[in-house]
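I hope you will forgive my troubling you with a question about protein structure. The record follows directly beneath this note:
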Amino acid sequence: MKFLPVVLIFCSISLISQDRAGNTGEYRPEIYHAYLDSRMDRWKDVLDEMETRYAAEPGNELLYEICEASYGYIAWCISVKRKQEAGIRLDRAQEYLDEFLKLDGTNARAWALQGAFYGFRVGLEPLKAAFYGRRSYEANEKALKLDPGEPQAWMEKAHIAFYKPAVFGGSDHEAVPLYERAVWLFENTPGRMKESWIYLNCLAGLGIACEKTGQVSMAGEVYRKILRLEPAFSWVRDELYPEYLEKRRY
């Protein structure tokens, strides 16, 4: 009888370990709340934890989550001029994404990320902008061909249109309906809105594009919609919407 507790403890530990190995979605709410709170230090910590976990317990779902979390963190690094860190993270993220695409080469979301990664290189390696810009477009088109209903592919297509210089074919006005389509697909695809920082980011992108193209009333509607969904979303609550209201005063 003295062996029974030992056996039970061993079995319990094994079951817990198996459950954690399969439950990679536990990181999703942490990344989501880091995004809401603009806590990129926390985002980085969670991403590092995910990578450590993957080294010990590889799995396709976790591998994709690392790629997606890296995508968000790299975009932030570029936005705050931390280009060296962005470059290091991008090289590492590309290795993870290459590994994922070897396992699932027809995954539209992964190809949308690949398009975004090439887009990051446009900003980090301006002398190769034409080369990486073309690769970004091609990867995004592949994502759309694989799944025309993938919202992230449409969001990235909108990003390409909005951020690409006009001389290379970029268009703020073309970006707006692309963002709208992405938002509609997020909202009409089961499971794609829950704790999705990418969905909120897409909405914010739509609001910014509306402002840039003079669709001021629509921009306000988008920002208010975001705050109804997530009143604690600090980027919109403390920056985008107050700045929008300030502009409306003049």
